Amino acid sequence: MRQLFVGGRRAAVVAAFTAVVTAGVAAPAATASVAPHTVSSVTLAASTTVKPHVTSAPKSVVVASGKKATFKVKASGLGLTYRWYVSTNGTRWAKVAKATHTSYTVKAKASLNGHRYRVVVKNGHGTVTSHSAKLIVAVKPHVTRQPHAASIVSGKKATFSIRATGNALGYQWYRAAPGKSFVKVTGATKPTYSFTTSASKNGYRYKAAVHNKAGHVMSSSARLAVITKPKITRQPAEEIDSRSGAAVTISVQATGFGLAYQWQYYDDSLTGDGEYHAIKGATRSSYTFRATTKTHDDYRVVVSNKAGKVASDDAFVLVDSSLQDPYGPDAGGMLSSWALGLDTELKGGATVVTGDAPTTVKSTFLAIPLDLHAEPGQLTIGLVVGGTTYAANVVAKQLPAGLGMFDLTATVSVPVDKESAEKGVWKVTDASGTAEVTQYFAQG
Predict the structure, then answer these.
(1) Number of helices (H), then strands (E), in the chain
(2) Are residues 43 and 63 in the same domain?
(3) Total number of domains constituting the chain
(4) Tens-digit pLDDT profile for residues 391-443
(5) Is the pTM of this model over 0.90?
(6) Which of the pair, 328 or 37, is modelled with greater confidence?
(7) Using CA atoms, how far apart are residues 81 and 101, in angstroms rounded to an integer?
(8) CATH number for position 280
(9) Ramachandran category for residue 166: left, alpha or beta (phi over 0 → left; psi -120 to 50 → alpha)
């Protein structure tokens, strides 16, 4: 009897619900003994009228050629059916034969790369189409542009980059200190890797691994040169002695990357401007030139790169004169115990030539003793005319106390005309040392 009663009650409820659905109105109140069961049954039956709803759409898949790719969908609703579609361009869609389940599996090949898949879900109350998902058939990467070596000023940004063919590529950069193995750079997972340089990174090497589902490839390595301001490790010689006509070489040593050199001379002559001037073509670590009495006596080099520049100490070049290349009026000569030159500050000039055959030549020298024991009598002065040296009479006059200088007035009579006498060259010999030292001076 109990089973019949229960079964009869269910039948009554179902009949009542059918009437409700047909009429499209709320069901009339039933007896108290069956009301709770009537409400439950109405809710259950109503759920069967809901159209499908996609709760999890298919997701794009990256897979190597020859491997299987699976697309899946999840949907809510009763009595659902599935039909998968494929498109080559995302616009036109075609049915996939026998693809009528919640998932669809396809064997990847190159011709399917970029194809899109979606699914249509149906039941008796409606249809819904999922979003599409792309099939990416991975091709093993190939590097088309390797990283390039870089020279960067310390504190500036260095950038290494790579290009590769393939799809769905991933990147990982590695670095190696000089003499060390490569290690992974944390967070460096893009085609370009940038960072701020420092002197400690000089000589580091960088390379990148490119990978996808089909495989991976490693780039070649590129070296980083960190440019710091040049440093001079060996200065030019402080003083260089040379004879007229000889080759003179001044050199410097410096450390740094990408160094450039520019030699300069300092013009401190009476007509000069007291500044350094670049020497055209003198752009190496050493500078060689042929010495003359007209040569500038003060040289330096400026060493530079992208990080800055530094100037060397000065090198002083002392050139001994010759009869063919005497000192000019504005130059001075070094002997054993004396330094001297024609006194160009004299009123009327350093040299006065009078008479004609014989001719009198009179010049005044400014003489500076180089040691306490130097005496004017150690100096012998003569005038060379036409290959013959004519001894001069020398009168020494010490300048006011405290200056430590002498005026030496040399006077000579030569048996030539005035024009020839004016071409004569003064010859000054210092006998104070172990060997005589001679310098020559053109008339002022």
Answers:
(1) 3, 40
(2) no
(3) 5
(4) 999 999 998 866 789 999 999 999 999 999 999 999 999 999 889 999 999 99
(5) no
(6) 328
(7) 8
(8) 2.60.40.10
(9) left
